[in-house]
């Protein structure tokens, strides 16, 4: 490869890379603000601590995944592979947490009702 070719490639992709870095840092800032708002809302509503942490962590991971996918699409990556990976990971996590979530939902439904 000649130096001229490498220079032209760097110049053509530098704008996309800089824009994606700006979007990444702005996205991280927005995600942190959203998480802070969720924490305040859950504290005001006095949501159970385990449910609070569970929901905040799921929302935080989902927002980070969306941010990374959007940045990858800005850089020109093919989205079908990302969507397939996210779908299979979601299925795997759902199957892994199936028992835990059913126990948690049962406890949550009976915690506010009559004594057992």
UniProtKB/TrEMBL annotation:
UniProt KW Transmembrane keyword: yes
Domain of life where this protein originates: Bacteria
Listed GO CC annotations: membrane
Keywords from the named record: Membrane, Transmembrane, Transmembrane helix
A GO term for molecular function: mechanosensitive monoatomic ion channel activity
Bilayer-spanning residue ranges: 6-31, 51-73, 79-97
SUPFAM superfamilies named in the record: Mechanosensitive channel protein MscS (YggB), transmembrane region
Protein's UniProt name: Small-conductance mechanosensitive channel
């Amino acid at each position: 490869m000649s130096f001229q070719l490498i220079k032209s490639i760097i110049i053509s992709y530098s704008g996309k890379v800089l824009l994606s870095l700006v979007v990444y840092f702005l996205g991280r800032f927005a995600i942190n603000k959203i998480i802070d708002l969720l924490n305040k809302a859950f504290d005001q509503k006095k949501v159970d601590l385990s449910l609070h942490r569970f929901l905040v962590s799921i929302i935080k991971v989902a927002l980070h995944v969306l941010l990374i996918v959007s940045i990858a699409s800005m850089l020109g990556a093919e989205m079908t592979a990302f969507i397939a990976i996210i779908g299979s990971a979601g299925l795997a996590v759902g199957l892994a947490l199936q028992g835990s979530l059913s126990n948690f939902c049962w406890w949550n439904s009976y915690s506010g009702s009559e004594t057992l």
